Amino acid sequence: MSPVMELDQSVTAALVSQNALQVIQHTSCELAGASSPGVLLACKNATQRLGATGLKLSTFSKAGMGVLKLATTQLKHQEKKARVVRASSMGKPHLSSDNSQCKKSPLDQLTALVMHGHARLQQLGKDQYGTKPQNCRRIVVLGAPRVGKTSILRRFLREDFEERYEPTCEDFHRKLYHIRGETYQIDILDASGERSFPAKRRLSILTGDIFLLVFSLDDRSSFEEVRALHEEILSAKMALHRTKHKLCVPTVICANKVDLPSEQHAVLRTEVLRAFGNGCALFETSAKDSVNLEQVFEGLARRGGLPLETGPSQHHKVSIKSYQALRAARQADKGCKGAVCDAPCGALYPLARRPSFGTDLRLVLGPDGNRKQSKALDKCQIQ
């Protein structure tokens, strides 16, 4: 299944599940005081919708668990009274509530899904988070403050520039593409706010596929920080792959603010080349004047194994709704001689959120990261 299809399904499931949870919370108050067929029907519908969507119920709050327990207790009490009345009217002995032949109530099923669904969630976690989708890449952007990282990303995502400076804590962007019949997903993590949190930065590095390091030509300290970050990236990836040999990590380095007068430059190009060698792609850029940025985006694509059409000037920019409609039309016409035009297009997903740290850890450790627990645990690779 393509990353975009998984994305569509996850969004739909989240909306349906949220609606179902609201129904349960609304009806639980009525369950506490009165018996109503409408209330039971609402709970049943909500239960079926929750079960069908596979909601990650381990994320429920304590208040939500309390609501479920209250609703279940009240419904059990009502069903027990109803069985007693039915048995009395038919002249039959009352069946025990523990009878295995009795059907489980809707809220019994819901509670079982909540309380005993951990095994299922673990299996889903292995399938969904153990490995990345084939056409999904994460670009991690690192560098000192005030060097122009956010401005470069704005050029990549929206092709505009903002003169005003605002400190970036952490930004996460997602862009979806349809190129030559294939879907691609690029996640961009601007990890600027992680300078004071080494473990968090380490996790961002371990989950990154492509790295964009930015320093300013008029700030030598920013250049020294990029050198240290590059060494940290190499050491983290070597530890992850358990090797002592230097790895070829896809990295692009931007010497930004080349538009400044040469007398303000504090770092020479020859010095940068000596520091990073031939293992990195180096570009002298200007986010303000959009100098060499197209080459930067092309370098990111080439080193990350992505089509060159992911560059901002190489595809049509559409809204997420238009993107989904175009993708659906192309899938419907796939294999037909009269297929629609397959011009590359891309859409910025507006509701993207960074995956949780637990998800990133599972991604780093892989699907077999928790096996062989009897052996001594290795040192945590994030510290």
Automatic annotation (TrEMBL):
<keyword id="KW-0342">GTP-binding</keyword>
<dbReference type="InterPro" id="IPR005225">
    <property type="entry name" value="Small_GTP-bd"/>
</dbReference>
<keyword id="KW-0636">Prenylation</keyword>
<dbReference type="InterPro" id="IPR052236">
    <property type="entry name" value="Small_GTPase_RasD"/>
</dbReference>
<dbReference type="GO" id="GO:0005525">
    <property type="term" value="F:GTP binding"/>
</dbReference>
<dbReference type="InterPro" id="IPR027417">
    <property type="entry name" value="P-loop_NTPase"/>
</dbReference>
<dbReference type="GO" id="GO:0005886">
    <property type="term" value="C:plasma membrane"/>
</dbReference>
<keyword id="KW-0488">Methylation</keyword>
<comment type="similarity">
    <text>Belongs to the small GTPase superfamily. RasD family.</text>
</comment>
<dbReference type="GO" id="GO:0003924">
    <property type="term" value="F:GTPase activity"/>
</dbReference>
<keyword id="KW-1003">Cell membrane</keyword>
<dbReference type="Pfam" id="PF00071">
    <property type="entry name" value="Ras"/>
</dbReference>
<dbReference type="GO" id="GO:0007165">
    <property type="term" value="P:signal transduction"/>
</dbReference>
<dbReference type="GO" id="GO:0031681">
    <property type="term" value="F:G-protein beta-subunit binding"/>
</dbReference>
<protein>
    <submittedName>
        <fullName>GTP-binding protein Rhes</fullName>
    </submittedName>
</protein>
<dbReference type="InterPro" id="IPR001806">
    <property type="entry name" value="Small_GTPase"/>
</dbReference>
<keyword id="KW-0449">Lipoprotein</keyword>
<keyword id="KW-0547">Nucleotide-binding</keyword>
<keyword id="KW-0472">Membrane</keyword>
